[in-house]
């Protein structure tokens, strides 16, 4: 079995960041979702993440649990920063605060987010193919694709405008899934 401790910090960050990037990319694949569509898609994605914490593959389960733990650590750090602003002193903290201020309230870039998700997924799978068990690589790739597919199918969309028919997966979402499929080598 492949363990997360087998990877460097940068590689581990890629492996842990890819599923979240795919979730974000899938929600933005057909443009800016409306509130109801966004809620349905995020709920569907959250369900896939919860299921991964009990996945039959040990590596996928370990990744999902590590992601959950990392989110808990980030929440604790943000709470500490809110309680004690002096804890944010330093160059890195100042740069992070500047970046947050610059991007806060801005709308995400759908093309940029989907491209980032595809690139991050490809890099993660490449690292895994080099050093992980083949079964773990395939399970991870399946999980990544399942996230995108479940989110894409969560809320139907209208293609072509107000009087057009409703489709389960939009052309933008299908394109995103196809690009992800290629990124994982299928």
Could you name the key traits of this structure?
mainly alpha; 72% helix; 186 residues; two-stranded antiparallel ribbon; 7 helices; single chain
Query: For the terminal residues, how far apart are their CA atoms?
Result: 22 Å
Tally of DSSP helical segments: 7
**Overall morphology:** globular
Main beta-sheet annotation: 2 strands, antiparallel
Which structural class best describes the helix and strand composition?
A: mainly alpha
Q: How much of the polypeptide forms β-strand, as a percent range?
A: under 5%
Give the low-pLDDT segments. Answer: none
pLDDT averaged residue by residue: 83
Classify the helix fraction into a percent range.
Answer: over 70%
The run of helices and strands is HHHHHHEEH
Give the strand order, joined by hyphens, for the main sheet: 1-2
> Radius of gyration from the CA trace?
18 Å
Q: Strand tally, please?
A: 2
What does this entry show, briefly?
By secondary structure, the protein is mainly α.
How would you describe the overall organization of this protein?
This protein has 186 residues and is mainly alpha-helical. 72% of the residues lie in helices and 2% in strands. It contains 7 helices and 2 strands; from the N terminus they run H-H-H-H-H-H-E-E-H. It has helices spanning 9-28, 35-52, 58-83, 91-103, 110-131, 134-154, 171-183; strands at 157-158, 166-167. It has a two-stranded antiparallel sheet with strand order 1-2. Strand 1 and strand 2 (166-167) form a beta hairpin. Helix 1 packs antiparallel against helix 5 (110-131), helix 1 packs parallel to helix 6 and helix 5 (110-131) packs antiparallel against helix 6 (134-154). The radius of gyration is 18 Å and the shape is globular. The two termini are 22 Å apart. The mean pLDDT is 83.
